[in-house]
Design a protein that fits this description.
4-stranded mixed β-sheet, binds adenosine-5'-triphosphate, 11-stranded mixed β-sheet, UDP-N-acetylmuramoyl-L-alanine:D-glutamate ligase, 307 residues, alpha/beta, binds 1-O-phosphono-beta-D-fructofuranose
Length: 307
């Protein structure tokens, strides 16, 4: 079974306006609410690709209830821990550019943290645990390490899609998959990445440190996959971007969906990039139909074998 864990879910409030001027009254042309947070997005895309999964994490208040209701409506299994306070509301402004304002999230007590660890202790060999998104302010960034340690004791494969220190600490545990974007890859090594050459250099370093698969996502420029001696470079399909929120999460879901269906590495990567782009070209997350439509448009080349 695949479990996703979103410590800090969100209701994503998408607001479209022709132009947005700070300090003025702006009128929206369109608004929408989506259940969000990175792990929840992974769960929603997995489900659309017919892969059963369970969404774990902390939810609270009317915003948390909205998430639980929406996932139920989509027939996604959940095992959330209800906490006092409100799940955050993240604003996604779509004017000439995309601007995001993400909330902080509720306070999580030690008792609730322990309740989540108890759920991780129930996982079994062969399960996959996806740890995705930021931590609420009251949760120390070593909390991911605690979860990873419990998962690894039980031979559960761990996927990590977060940033900052939490991501850095995860590397020592040789996760199954990391999906940093270019900025996050640079942050991992305390640098800014400006060239393809640097992406290759630092991607290889992650593999040399024991990470099993690394996908560096490059938005409209596609992605690069690293695994053992293999480096695959994908060009993203071209299209009109409607909402890139969740594109990275869709990549993780696409890769896992193909992996559990025993696709080859190249096919899993193709599926991953198609899912990311299908989400970028959609208002909500991708549909299976759109992913399949884009598969043939993902061009993958192999870099010569690593020495
Ligand atoms: N403009 C675009 N055109 C085509 N594909 C895109 C575009 N933006 C994103 N994608 C697809 O989505 C994938 C992930 O995008 P990106 O690198 O922006 O992830 P991210 O930074 O993790 O995003 P997020 O945090 O919003 O989920 C890309 O590798 C690509 O396949
Ligand atoms: O604040 P975090 O946890 O880093 O990111 C949260 C978030 O921006 O990520 C998802 C898209 O990847 C959105 O659904 C959500 O609002």
């Amino acid at each position: 079974m695949i479990y996703t864990c979103t410590l800090n879910p969100s209701v994503d409030y998408v607001v479209e306006a022709q132009q947005i001027e700070l300090g003025k009254l702006n009128r929206a042309t369109k608004t929408a609410y989506f259940p969000g947070g990175k792990g929840i997005n992974v769960s929603r895309v997995l489900k659309r690709l017919h892969v059963h999964n369970v969404a774990l994490g902390f939810i609270g208040g009317f915003t948390g209830q909205f998430i639980a209701d929406e996932l139920k409506r989509e027939h996604i299994l959940t095992d959330f821990i209800a906490v006092p306070g409100q799940t955050r509301l993240n604003i996604k402004l779509k004017g000439e550019k995309e601007t995001e304002i993400n909330g902080a999230g509720p306070i999580i007590s030690d008792e609730h943290k322990e309740a989540l660890i108890a759920k991780i202790k129930q996982l079994k060999k062969g399960d996959i645990l996806v740890l995705a998104g930021s931590l609420p302010p009251s949760v120390d960034d070593t909390f991911y390490v605690t979860m990873i340690e419990e998962a690894k004791k039980r031979r559960v494969s761990v996927v990590v899609d977060t940033s900052g220190n939490a991501l850095k600490q995860a590397i020592a545990y040789e996760p199954f998959l990391l999906k940093p974007n270019q900025t996050e890859l640079g942050e991992l090594f305390g640098t800014h990445i400006h060239s393809r050459h640097q992406i290759i250099e630092y991607g290889k370093k992650l593999i040399d440190n024991g990470v099993q698969h690394v996908i560096v996502s490059l938005a409209g420029d596609g992605a690069i996959l690293f695994h053992k001696d293999v480096i695959l470079i994908a060009q993203a399909p071209k299209g009109i971007v409607k909402n890139s929120v969740g594109a990275g999460d869709s990549m993780v879901a696409g890769f896992l969906a193909a992996y559990v269906n025993e696709a080859s590495l190249e096919e899993a990567f193709r599926y991953s990039v198609a899912a990311g782009s299908a989400t970028a070209f959609s208002e909500d997350l991708c549909t299976e139909e759109e992913v399949h439509r884009l598969l043939g448009e993902v061009n993958i080349t192999r870099m010569e074998d690593r020495v």
